[in-house]
Design goal:
Blueprint lengths: L1 E5 L2 E3 L5 E8 L7 E7 L6 E6 L6 E3 L7 E6 L4 E6 L8 E9 L2 E4 L3 E5 L2
Parallel strand pairs: 2-11
Antiparallel strand pairs: 1-3, 3-8, 4-5, 4-9, 5-6, 7-8, 9-10, 9-11
Length: 115
């Protein structure tokens, strides 16, 4: 099983980034996919989630209206479009696949929002 995040980097406040997470080694289309983040000195938090078929999403209050989660089951990939980024969005972002007791995590990608 592999989850490989990409797309992180340094961006100015108000800017945008699109994170991708490429999955392999399991039946991607059966899994709920989530993006989580962990800022320095803080606990990991759920940012966004999408159902296996993509018919429902939910978001942390702190990112509603700014972030959009989506998935392409043909490409085994989940995305996180992040707009209007704020310094408080700075964190390592982790992709997570969840189905019953199966819970897989990627290694994370750093997002830094700073001028």
């Amino acid at each position: 099983v592999q989850l490989v995040e990409s797309g992180g980097g340094l961006v100015q406040p108000g800017g945008s980034l699109r994170l991708s997470c490429a999955a392999s080694g399991f039946t991607f289309s059966r899994y709920t996919m989530r993006w989580n983040r962990q800022a320095p000195g803080k606990e990991r938090e759920l940012v966004a989630a999408i159902t296996s078929v993509g018919d429902s999403t939910n978001y942390a209050d702190s990112v509603k209206g700014r972030f959009t989660i989506s998935r392409d089951n043909a490409k085994n990939t989940v995305y996180l479009q992040m707009n209007s980024l704020k310094p408080e969005d700075t964190a390592v972002y982790y992709c997570n696949a969840l189905r019953y007791s199966s819970d897989y995590w990627g290694q994370g990608t750093q997002v830094t929002v700073s001028s």
